[in-house]
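Can anyone check this?
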Amino acid sequence: MPGVLPEGEPVPRDGSLPDTARSAVGARGFGVYVHVPFCASRCGYCDFNTYTAAELGGGASRETYADTVLAELALAARVLGDSPPPRVDTVFVGGGTPTLLPADDLARILDGIDRTWGLAAGAEVTTEANPESVTPESLRTLRAAGYTRISLGMQSAAPGVLAVLDRRHGPGRATAAAREARDAGFDHVNLDLIYGTPGETADDFAASLAQVVDAGVDHVSAYALIVEDGTRLAARMRRGELPYPSDDVAADRYLAAEAALGAAGFSWYEVSNWARSEAAACRHNLLYWTGADWWGLGPGAHSHVGGVRWWNVKHPSAYAERLAAGASPALARERLTGDEQHMEDVMLRLRLASGLPLEVLDDAGRAGAERARAGGLLDPGAYAEGRAVLTLRGRLLADAVVRDLLP
């Protein structure tokens, strides 16, 4: 089941923000995230804020969801008032399975964002999708509506691995959907992989990587399996039905991904993400990683404007009820201190291939960076130029390097 939201201070009923937060909105870029919380079934490893039809209860439905999101968008426009973002640089529709909504509804939501704040010229517009939830026709409709990028949840090409993860699609469906998306005219297509699933062999993962490369996509995300409390997968492991993931195996899989994708012309730009070109990198995620502003629409969605971060109520029914009553769906918020913003900046920028300027570190952090460089975890050439950039070995130990750079 979905995880628990953090605690925070109350949000005004109208969702209003401090003047200091609104004064420079969009100065470092502005994006919109749209959460679609619906799934046809729950994957065994997933603790995202998603709901099957049986879990929804009354008060929420796919049929009325687009209108509810547009109601929050109208509230967002009132909150930002006379200090709106210059333009929307990126839109990312995630889930859940956004493409369980009719393509026309996804088109209406995008049109609403454009009418409210305006899409920047060349804006990146992404939707996530499960491979079995799209067709050539729906993909053409989305592309015609202005979606430029699609991210497909492949996870693996091995039937046994897909079964352990409770995925509904067959081994070849993800790459077929990727080709259909390119045929529909999408500028950029991503395939997501998960590695380290119990029972996955090195050959299984190699076959998955080969299929990804053969599919002709220009972006790949690959993440180690994380076993979250409360999931079906965690319960199976506690009962001894499946072994827990191995850190050593995960490291081997990561090295295999780097080798195979590098040989195929991909370059890493974030620890878990590879692109064929700079233009193919996910610009929306880069907004997150570089401290920009974004408004998150939908139940459980998080937002960040001017150092204030807030999150909406989780259940779709509660979300819809608040908006119907004219109230903000935000559950709580936090105002990030300078130290907290610095910590997050170090944590996120260090994961990027562009690295972290050493000048932002204090004396203890620079001493930690020197230890990391001496230990082969930071690139010596970039270090000499004043940047902390992870080496391949450093990427495997990124969390440890971050701890060394922070007080």
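Reply from J.R.: I decoded it. DSSP finds 17 helices and 14 strands in the chain.
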